Amino acid sequence: MAEINLKVDDVTVAYSNGHVALHDASFELNRPTICALVGVNGSGKSTLFKAIMGFVQPIKGRVTISGESVHQAHRKNWVAYVPQAEDVDWSFPVSVWDVVLMGRYGYMNFLRIPRQEDKRIARECLERVGMWEFRDRQIGELSGGQKKRVFLARALAQQGRFLLLDEPFTGVDVKTEEAIIELLMELREEGLIVFVSSHDLGSIPRFCDQCVIINRTVLATGPIETTFTERNLTIAFGGALRNVRFDHTDEPGSRNEYRVLTDDEGALVFDHEGKPALPVKRQIAESDHHD
Amino acid sequence: MTELLLAPFQYDYMLRAMLVSGFIGAVCALLSCFVTLKGWSLMGDALSHAVVPGVSIAFLLHLPFAVGAFASGMLAALTMNFIKSRTRLREDAVIGLVFTTFLALGVLLISLYPSNISLTTIILGNVLGIADEDILQIVIIAAVTLAVLLLKWKDLLLFTFDPHQARAVGLNTDLLGLLLLTLLAATAVAALQAVGAILVIAMLVTPGATAYLLTDRFGRMMAISSGIGLLTSIVGAWASFFLNTSTGGCIVLLQTILFLLVFFFAPKYGFVPIRRQTRRSTKSIPVTRARVPESHPH
Ligand SMILES: Nc1ncnc2c1ncn2[C@@H]1O[C@H](COP(=O)(O)OP(=O)(O)O)[C@@H](O)[C@H]1O
Ligand SMILES: [Mg+2]
Question: Rounded CA gap, A97 and B269, in Å?
Answer without folding.
Answer: 21
